[in-house]
Amino acid sequence: MAAGEKNAAPAAPYGLVGHPLGHSWSPLIHERLGSAPYALHDLDADEAREFIALGQWRGLNVTIPHKRLAAELADVRSPAVGRLGAANALVRDDDGRIVAENTDVLGFAWMLSRFCRERLGSSPRDLLEGREALVLGSGGASAAVRDALENVAGARVGIISRTGDDTYETLVERHRDAVLLVNTTPVGMFPRCPQSPVPEQDLAELPRLRGVLDVVYNPERTGICLAAERLGIPCESGLAMLVAQALYASELFQGRDLDDSLVADVERAIRAQTGNVVLIGMPGAGKSSCGRSLAHALGRPFVDIDDAIEAEQGRGPAQIILEDGEDAFRAIETEATARYGARSGLVIACGGGVVTRPENYDLLHQNGTIVLLDRPLSELSSEGRPVSQSRGIERVAAERMGLYRSWADVTLPCTGSASGDAEKIRALLGL
Known about the structure:
alpha/beta; Rossmann fold; 3 domains
């Protein structure tokens, strides 16, 4: 099979080269930016070299592990590519030359500027000039982020890696004056989420820390961002950087300027398509029937956590609780919640007791909007629900309603029908 033919239509003028690629949002992004058709080219080093040099393409994005190869093969390199020795965007000019740019630098600078302006009420230079910013990781993404922090914001950059003088073990001791922390490692990326490269306690011990950024974009809220949220530190994961770097690449591909407002438009479109809708509420509130109706209306997969557990265990929740006890069931429930909460674009109906384990919140919140279905207690039944039967619906509600409300991004008083509830959720979430 010739280079460029794997997992892609060779005739596509635009595309992404990397290995392994897996799932990518780049085709969706570039379709909205106007640089389409856009194909994925999952190629090893030799195949990538041949395809970049000889393939019939107009513009390419390049991701790991081929960014240095892309810079090497280019006939013309931007100043950023010259500094970093890596390129993530290639275009053929009118003379057939390969021109290389590093739009990761531009994309992170765009993300940083908006974050500082909208979340911190400052410009990047006002916040960071002469002050310390920490970058976790020392790979290609780290180099691009460092370049932007130094040349756009005037920051003093400290690189934290697993070896050398500046390690994760000495982070707090050596960098207590840091005002910004940026994760450029893959720690916390799907499917190993919501892991974090540093413990929450370390963030808490950086007294001048004003913000946390993560170049990882899947999940929407990475582990380090979830930790920052709990500490009240403004944070953002990497979707804006992904879209902004794509916009600058698309400008090169198309040879025309694009409106920066497209970044926010594409972000919203991706979140609407890939974010999970998570239904919580009392046992018997109608989460399963509403979820099925909503998933059908949206054309999305539906997951009922209780049904998934029964399919995997050969026993339903009620039987597991009666035979093994509630604690055993809750452990199984958390494992299932972790698997499905990490995925994208689902409608998920949770069991009524999911809120009894605090760790389940991060598992659902990382990629989802949590909706509380609030049905009057008088309309709930305890039939087939051993916890409700043993404790009584009123006691269960007293124990859980505060948790439901604190977890929920949206609370929906039930309309009386599953389809009515589903339509209300669509309207509330703009889906």
